[in-house]
User: Fold this.
Amino acid sequence: MARSASLPSTVLVTGGAGFLGSHACVEFLDHGYEVVVVDNYCNSSPQALTRVERIAGRFVGAVYELDIRDRRALSAVFDRHAVDAVVHFAALKSAGGSLRRPVEYYDTNVGGTTALLHSMHEHGVHQLVFSSSCAVYGEAGAGPLDETTAPRPTTPYGASTWMCEQILAEVCRRRPEYTVLCLRYFNPAGAHPSGLLGEDPQGTPDTLMPYVARVADGRREHLTVFGDDYPTRDGTAVRDYVHVMDTVRAHLLALDHLVDGPGMRVFNLGRGRGRSVLEVIAAFSETSGGAVPYVTAPRRPGDVAELVADATAVGRAWGWRPALTLADMCRDAWRFQQLNPRGYAGSERRPEPDEYR
Ligand code: NAD
Assistant:
């Protein structure tokens, strides 16, 4: 698809092999961008990028296995490619993991972002789309939450993401050449409609839908529902699930809107509709045609009762409105699970760089 000459043409995607990054790469390739990926595969597989290329019918321009905190390696990527804009997905995202390993989370999420900013600065790259999270809101209150709500993160994950936002806001205040679009995702779920790409975290999934999918197909015995005594309609935690395809579509719009002018803008990405854990289980059971066994356990530290977005600002600014429903998310996640019962493990080998062309 042709794009205006003023828009960025080469996009560096950090964490491009991950759940959101891989789906975004498909969209970017489909829309004519040159895509360069860096990822250390700590929560992903290079096979995801092979799938990206199969779906898009185009190659990712270059893929580098590196840790974004490795400034020398990252700088070499900027030396080799004329990067116009960066879409920064690389981070650790497990709330529970962050309670166990807080330093690792601050180091990766905050240290990774500042390392990236150093390389961008050295190479005159000033356009960034940043992945933030509803976790920054924490115990800010019951929704719908808009972007003016003061963040009150409850975990090192949420706090590290909020710190990144504050650093980016400060950079934009001090350096007028920067444009940062900060997208606060609520709960992205679902998969690419082809069934080739989906959410395949390493180890035990921390997000609900891939866990439910693995239980539904028998790969796991049961789901544990943490907390059934929240002040919600059925006692389980309420979140705002938004389809991954809707979520990555917002990133395409973000690339278009990087040219709107300098400074930092923050937008929520959610459907504005809260669903409880039990409602997600019921919706998934309906899709898969089988029961999803679960047990209940006490609330997890750091979890809050409800996080629901008011996402009207991004609708007004960019015309983004989520098109897909919870039933669509379940259908697509289930298709991915059925076609890839062991995730990307055992799928085709990713070619070496010199086998590409
Ligand atoms: P993911 O774990 O699937 O993807 C992150 C990718 O970054 C992985 O491929 C991982 O290997 C890579 N990575 C992590 N640390 C790295 C490092 N130091 N160097 C290089 N690569 C590294 O997660 P995701 O769901 O795609 O999330 C992407 C971003 O969106 C994260 O910042 C996350 O906090 C944010 N987010 C995700 C959700 C969600 O539910 N998926 C919700 C809100 C916000």
User: Anything to note?
Assistant: The chain has one domain: 10-344. Residues 349-357 have pLDDT under 50 and may be disordered. Residues 102-122 form the longest helix (21 residues).
